[in-house]
Design a protein that fits this description.
Structural class: alpha+beta
Number of domains: 3
Oligomer: single chain
Bound molecules: flavin-adenine dinucleotide
Largest sheet: 5 strands, antiparallel
Strand order of the largest sheet: 4-5-10-6-7
Helix content: 25-40%
CATH topology of the largest domain: Enolase-like, domain 1
Number of strands: 14
CATH class of the largest domain: Alpha Beta
Distance between the termini: 61 Å
Length: 294
């Protein structure tokens, strides 16, 4: 199929882009096009106009400081994945990004575009929620910060308005006392996952766990985060606590089924992967403690 007819604009400043969006209800931002163009070709989306932001090169950045990583709207997945400082400040970013599609798509697709696209099967919306990050959305009326926890409201639906451009995503730094892990199951390498789970585990120097959070993609119809801390009750990692955490996750999730996997199968994958990633994130946190103590 071919897309329905649409107008096209390639503004050279952010203000111009915002003016075009404001003046053309039904217009859509075009970033890497890796999600939007297939939707146009299948006529699932029929915007009145595409506002191509690829000339706004000032939005092509990745910056880091002690507080976290800031990713501009035109930073491609591959640039973020390869950014050495970003990998140090928030290691979950690169570990998740190397699971996104394949290198060709990562060379063109933007991390911010993926966050706005709000696909519950995508890695970066879930990672943003798990890390309690935020986005900056700008319109002709001004700028606002949207915390990740209020960003996703339904399947492929976010609270970003049609007249807004998300200029930046912010991922907080990983505390020295924490570790992270990410695992997912896909039929073939590069496919969207049938289920993916990431965890952030915070532990004290004595090995006792103080907080465990896990994020789930492709399980529910929005990216979902579950606080599993109560299963550990400030103990060290034990098999019983891991089992309890997996049960707690199962009870908190409401998996959806589709032609790729039943709800029951997704729920079982989530249970198994929860144990694996919590264990791996705990192990990941221990050398970081040693670094602090050294
Ligand atoms: C074959 C294939 C496999 C894929 N597999 C995966 C996968 O395994 N995991 C995964 O996470 N993704 C996957 N993707 C999607 C890919 O990661 C896209 O890059 C990403 O989802 C969207 O980024 P984009 O820059 O291409 O956005 P676009 O396609 O340009 O836009 C996507 C949507 O976001 C909006 N948008 C984009 N940027 C902004 C902005 N700055 N402000 C406001 N609105 C904006 C657009 O209007 C549109 O609605 C796959 C894509 C393909 C084609």
């Amino acid at each position: 199929m071919k897309p329905a007819a649409f107008g096209f604009s390639r503004p050279t400043s952010l203000q111009q882009a915002l003016d075009v969006l404001f003046g053309n209800p039904g217009a859509k931002v075009l970033a890497g096009g890796q999600s939007l163009i297939p939707l146009l070709s299948m006529r699932i989306a029929s915007p009145s106009m595409l506002v191509d932001i690829n000339a706004l090169t000032e939005l092509s950045y990745v910056t880091c400081d002690d507080t976290g990583v800031r990713i501009g709207a035109l930073a491609r997945h591959a640039e973020v994945e390869a950014h050495a400082q970003a990998r140090r400040v928030q290691p979950l970013l690169s570990r998740a990004l190397r699971l996104v599609a394949n290198p060709t798509i990562r060379n063109r697709g933007t991390t911010v575009g993926s966050i706005v696209h709000a696909d519950a099967a995508a890695e970066m919306p879930m990672v943003l929620r798990l890390l309690q990050g935020s986005v900056t959305a700008v319109s002709v009326q001004g700028s606002r910060t949207i915390p990740a926890e209020s960003l996703y409201i339904g399947p492929m639906e976010s609270t970003v308005r049609d007249d807004e451009i998300v200029t930046e995503a912010f991922f907080p730094a990983l505390p020295r006392s924490a570790g992270v892990a990410f695992e997912q199951i896909a039929r073939r390498q590069g496919d969207y996952a049938l289920c993916g789970v990431a965890a952030v585990v915070d532990s004290g120097a004595d090995g006792r766990i103080t907080s465990v959070r896990a994020g789930y993609l492709s399980v529910c119809d929005v990216p979902t985060v579950v606080d599993l801390s109560e299963a550990f009750a400030a103990q060290e990692l034990t098999e019983q606590a891991l089992h309890d955490a997996a049960e707690l996750a199962s009870a908190s999730l409401d998996p959806t089924g589709d032609i790729h996997a039943s709800a029951a199968y997704r729920g079982e994958l989530a249970r198994v992967l929860t144990q694996r990633v919590v264990r791996a994130a705990y192990d990941d946190s221990r050398p970081r403690h040693v670094e602090v103590e050294a």
